[in-house]
Amino acid sequence: MMKQKLNPAWLPMVLLILGLSTIAFPLYMTIVIAFKQPSEMSNTISGILSLPEHWSFDNFREAMEVTDFWSSLGYSLLITLVTVVLSILVHSMIGYVLGRNKNHNKFYGFVYLFIVSGMFVPFAILMMPLAKETAELGLANWFGVILLYVVFYMPMNIMLYSGYLVNIPIALEEAARVDGASTWRTYWKVIFPLMKPMHATVAVITALAVWNDVMTPLVIMAGSGVNTLPLAQMNFQSQFGTNYNLAFASYLLSLIPILIFYIICQKQIINGVVNGAVK
Amino acid sequence: MKNDRKRTYLLITIPILALFITFNTIPLLRGVVYSFTNFRGFGNYEWVGFRNYIDLFTDARVGSSYIFTIKLAIVTTIVVNVLSILLALALNSKIRAKGFFRGAYFLPNVLGALVVGYIFNYFFTYLVPALAEMTGIGALKTSILAGKNTAWIGIMVVCAWQAVAMNTIIYISGLQTVPEDVYEAGSLDGATGWKKFWKLTFPLIVPFFSINMVLCVKNFLMVFDQIMALTKGGPAQSTESISYLIYNNGMKGGQFGFQSANAVMFFIVIVVISVAQMKFSGKKEEQL
Question: Which of A60, A186, A267, B40 qualifies as a FRET site for A275, CA 20 to 30 Å off?
Fold first, then answer.
């Protein structure tokens, strides 16, 4: 008891530093292996843990070529950005309409429940019919994947937006209406800007989910000749999986964009994820 | 004026609802329809009534995928929640560099599960056995992913590595809602350590506990990426999760109809578990 009072936090501090190795060690190994040459890989402890002899970017250059890195990066960015923008525009709009009407209008109340209960539908049951459907509609490509994401994240985002709406007084809309603004204009000029904190939350959770998703592009656009970053890793693994140094360079390359994003917007990301889960 | 509002609301709702129905409701219904056929994914098919559903209960591969998935979900949920409560308590105590530690511990959550799986795959296959060889730990000399009875542990470790990050941050936000004076009152009554946590802190963070339970159970029941990266369902189909089996046999193995029935059953299981969890956690929170 006394000791704890004198030194309030040495025990958690020590444990936290030790625990950090479970995160730092895998990352360290990934970086080291990505820079080493196959001839440097050995089975002794010092050989495994040691730094590479030279820091050469050859592995990365080759991995970029083999996985067509810039193209997969481009498609991953395109799909993520368009999905996030569409989610913010579309989900906030429908979230607003449903949130404002669901409690006193049976139709909107039903639509709200109908869409939100889509949260219980696992991708496993949609996957096979969607593969057929998107092929029939000519949407078995990156654009189809975006449309599907807009639908998949709709239940969650509608819940977030219509929940947030409780914080925005109706009086604001009524004031705008008295001034003669149409409902459409009122929404974009008054409500949409006020929902900014929720836009940030929605952007973060949608972006992380889309960026890291494997199943949807795998099932929908596997035959389209276009890859996202995770898909590129999967193809790479099946073709060149035995050259571990090359493989790790490729893994590291695919992790770098999200690592940079995380380092820059760490606070917003953590807040967004917590808000999304807790609300 | 009122008409303008009504019209605008409808004009927004109808196209978005149509989009939702096209890519969520219709495929769901089509999945149910396929589940009553012997469709292979191409060519002709016939109606087979409830045959697929009856076969589900006698199919050993389906049975073992349910057992594996449920076992993985339960064990991983327990491991993750114990670790993240401890970690959250440590991160919420009076330490230095709080922001740095929180940021560092959350990092695994933002990385893609597939690539993380590939990285750990290498660790389990080469690194751990090499280290075991040198330190003389016999049990780890062969890759745990190669053993029928041990491969699931590897999957659990990778799932937990990423999920702990998420759950910890949620527990921290729970701990921050606990007012200081609760502890002051508690320490006057002589509550310390374990008792203090169990009697004072935990009841106040139960809502966050139930969020974490829901998140964990749902995510782990749908596990796919980790399986794909670590074992591809092997060895000897011992780590086939339900999602992986549906993908593998339904999309590629010509069992479109049969796996649709499996997917319908999986859907029902998810709904039942989710509803039960919501009822249960709703009640618990009311009591407090």
Answer: A186
